[in-house]
# Entry
Amino acid sequence: MTERLGDKILVLGAGNFGTCLAQHLAEKGYHVIIWSRSQEVVDSINQAHKNPKYLSTINLSPRLQATKIIDAAIIDAVDVVIQATPTQTMREVLSTLKPLWHSSLLLICAAKGIEVGSLEMPSQIIADVLGASVGERAAFISGPSFASEIMSRQPTAVTAASRSAKSAQRVQSLFHSAHFRVYTSDDPVGLEVAGALKNVVAIAAGACVGIGFQMNSRAALITRGLSEIMRFGVALGANPITFNGLSGVGDLFLTCTSEKSRNFSVGYKLGQGLPIDKVLAEVGVAEGVATAKAAHDLAIKLQVDAPIVNEVYSVLYENKPIAQAVMGLLTREAKPEVSF
# Structure
């Protein structure tokens, strides 16, 4: 596994995970440019080596520079582009790059979600905007990985998936370190499905705790959530084994059991009785909220049995009381445990 420290990297998105990945690569010795819409963020990173909005206590590497403008000069100077903006803005961001894109670039996607309206995963958005050949070579990175813990060098393991073995191995080479282990996979669909839907299950898990249910209930919800995710995955052609790995059960367990998860926090506050507008004002953007709507529509399209997704959707978008949503799950007809 040979590192190519000559690689120059552009990270799209200066949120928690984008900043985390950019800093990790800069610490490894790569020259990294991070793009943000905010001039305040750009100036602070360039002048004070701090992101004032995300991971603000971290001293950022001098190898990490920020920009608000992406032009041909920047694209021509980099070898790798990391897409770390939210899924719902991904199409817009990539569309601005389309006229500048060249075939030698490797695209790595760290976004998790399903686009509302199109019901497309990030890999499908990439193919739509940048072309099928870019989509075939693109790689996707996911796993149980809170940004703050990566930055404090807590041991972390993730998966890099691509239809191209060469792309997956290159991502592994770029990111792998003693505290950030990277495994490879040839199932980007499974990785994307798990990464998107675990956020919806995490909202349900948070609500479960907010209501006052204890560990039996949470364990049951997480396990049934995994079954639900697998049903989506199988319907979309994923390898079921993927869901037993880091990007599947690993990420699901992390997101559904920690207050560090925004999606868990959204559910927890809903479970305590706060309305969704006040919850989002306190917590901020949580990818699972938009994904719940897209996943609900996708379940109808695919004819997938998705009771947890449906109840989360009803609470978020139809003002269904949490207690009724819980009863809706508890009073479902008894059935075999394993079914696809």
